[in-house]
Fold this sequence. Notes:
With 300 residues, the chain is an alpha/beta fold. It has one domain (7-296): TIM Barrel. It has helices at residues 12-16, 26-38, 61-67, 83-91, 105-112, 116-132, 155-168, 184-197, 214-223, 251-260, 269-283, 293-296, and strands spanning 7-10, 43-48, 75-79, 96-102, 136-142, 146-147, 151-152, 172-176, 203-206, 228-231. 50% of the residues are buried.
Amino acid sequence: MRPERITIVEVAPRDGLQAEDRVLPTEVKLELLERLADAGHTSIEATSFVSPKAVPQLADAEELMRRLKPREGVRYTALVPNETGLDRAMSCGVREIAVFASASESYSRKNLNRSRDEAIAGYGPVIKRAKAAGLRVRGYLSMVFADPWDGPTDPGVVSAAAKQLLDFGCDELSLGDTVGVGTPGEISTLLSALRRDIPLPKVAFHFHDTYGQALANVLAAMSEGVTTFDASVGGIGGSPFAKMAGGNLATEDLVWLCKGMKIETGLDLDKLVATTTWLGEKLGRELPAHVSRAVRGGDV
Ligand code: MG
């Protein structure tokens, strides 16, 4: 099975920037969001309403969301850790939130300071309130293949957690291979378990390229009917709590794959590459040249 079209959720402005040493000015973040929308992105994770102490890189979430001009056909998501975060997000006009849970026990305790079950249950009131207010809700579930402390994650546990988040009202679930250890073999096993409990159209994958498996995993998931994937321009980002994690799957790499396979993404590769070059200058480091102009040639 090969989809005609996939949706790429751009996560660089949140998942990417929170992992950078340099804190970008709000003005630059707004330009990044504009550039990503100009490149054709329709779903962009813009910022996070977690504690500014925990993630100082995104401490300007309120100002950013207030100044961000709405664009027809573009959804901007903001990460929300709890009801306080939801209040902050709603006070500045956020229309789509994301909640962040873990499929594994140790990562939940280290990242969220709560057991897996407590953390997931705690999102119930947040999701329900957001839905009652007419917001769209994305749920993240991390460590879906393995956790660096706990080892392999049981697909049945992932499926049960996914079902619970959907039952609370999540519109979409992004399943994260937070350490980047999954291979196409694990994708099939996990999807078999998920298929029994939840509708696959609500499932997205969030791959990391630690062991060079991200695109292979995308292909495997696509072949089983998944059509939404998270990616980050320049491949920036990784989990600050899992130091061994490699970067996010680079948006340019995913678009290049799709171009070759004649799968529509709605994205302009030249604009993405130009954005990565520009972003590297703003971050003060050269970002890897995913898909060089020389290789791409004129029109591709
Ligand atoms: Mg990531």
